Amino acid sequence: MSTILVTGGFGYIGSHTCLELLKKGENLLIIDSLENSSINIKLKINNLLSKNNDNKNGKLVFRKGDIRNKIWLKNIFEEFKLLEIPIKTVFHFAGLKSVEESTKLPLKYWDVNVNGTINLLNIMSENDCFNIIFSSSAMIYKQNISKPFKENSELSPTNPYAFTKFTIENILQELYSSAPHKWRIANLRYFNPVGAHTSGQLGDNPTKRPANLFPAIINSLQNDNIELSIFGKDWPTNDGTCVRDFIHIMDLANAHIAANDLLISEDPQLLSLNIGTGFGTSVLEIIKTFEKVNNCSIKYKFDQRRAGDVPFIVADNSYAIKRLNWIPKKSLKDICRDTWNWAFKTEIKIN
Ligand code: NAD
Q1: Is 84 exposed, middle or buried, given 0-12, 13-18 or 19+ CB atoms closer than 10 A?
Q2: Residues in contact with ligand 1 (CB, 6 Å cut-off)
Q3: In 33, 95, 115, 205, which residue has its Cα 20 to 30 A from 18's Cα atom?
Q4: Active site annotation includes 109
Q5: Cα–Cα distance between 13 and 252 in angstroms, integer?
Q6: Residue 232 contacts residue 225 (beta carbons within 8 Å)
Q7: Which run of H or of E encompasses 131?
């Protein structure tokens, strides 16, 4: 028996992916500093698991800590080896993700994202753990085109956050080249993950001021309809607002499961895959759809463009669909409905 280590597993993407892994019977060790999440996520995951009555749920162990803490991380790998449930796979979600914050605090981003990952990779390597699924980002592509990005499109990050993701991908490439017979690596380049678990129990629950569109919509609706800021109205898009490829969080979670299955079933390799829907939607279109699906009204205002922002980010997902035998199934309506249910129709939120 072995263990899957999930870094940042109580965060938005990690928590939804962990639930699916546990339902599949995988035993997980989640580590998280709780910098942008909460211990209550453990209760929510366990609660959802208890409703899954096919009895094959895996076990969830949680340890609070920081991936930059070498001794702590080493001890954890050691401990699980001694228990004869060694860590053999890592889903690496832990990191900081705000483009805007990264332009103000670049050193913090390099330290957590890059130094934290180097630390993790060193310890994985020392413990014969060579299987990693890394949370990369579409922000690493060169942002000068208005057509969907392919995996081989030019890479040229334009902000510190994107640079950290680009750098980690480079490190992983070099690591793979140093021992191609050992490493199984999947860089999943996420486009815009949104929505929530259909139960309304899990969703995007940042402890920091929301920087992403859907948490910002909810924040506005929950606070007497304070005006939502739309950053820029003169981008070179149809309605002047940014266009993004919004993918439902459960489609994204399932892409992780499919990526792990693929890595395990084939020879060692390094893969980079676009995880998006292939469709672009503007910020204004999202607001209109959200209002229609949920019969509500969102007040908004136009603000200055944000530092580091770009107008058009849409995936060509054909390679991921082919390699992963996976396809995004959820619609924009599902995204808007599930986000609403998560925010307004569930039991009282714990945090
Ligand atoms: P999140 O902030 O919700 O989750 C990240 C988790 O990592 C949090 O629980 C946080 O507490 C934890 N964490 C942060 N620093 C840590 C550290 N030093 N040690 C241990 N834990 C730490 O973010 P998310 O939306 O779930 O994103 C997960 C990953 O996907 C991130 O690496 C992010 O950069 C990447 N990503 C996210 C998006 C997005 O739009 N959400 C898009 C592309 C890529």
Answers
A1: exposed
A2: 7-8, 10-14, 32-37, 66-68, 93-97, 112, 116, 135, 137, 190, 192-193, 212
A3: 115
A4: no
A5: 8
A6: no
A7: strand 131-137
Contacts (Cβ under 8 Å, ≥6 apart) of 219: 210, 226
Question: Which residue's C-alpha comes closest to atom 30 of ligand 1?
Answer: 135
What is the rounded average pLDDT for all residues in the chain? 94
Give the model's pLDDT for residue 209: 67
| pLDDT band, very low/low/confident/very high, at 240 (cuts 50, 70, 90) | very high
Report, as an integer, the average pLDDT of 208-218.
82
Q: What is the DSSP string of 198-217?
A: TTSS-----SSPP-SHHHHH
Probe residue for ligand 1, chosen from 35, 102, 212 as the CB with the greatest number of ligand atoms within 8 Å = 35
Element (H, E) at 79: helix 70-82
Write the pLDDT tens digit of every residue in 29-70. Answer: 999 999 999 999 999 999 999 988 767 899 999 999 999 999
CA of 34 to the centre of ligand 1 (A): 10
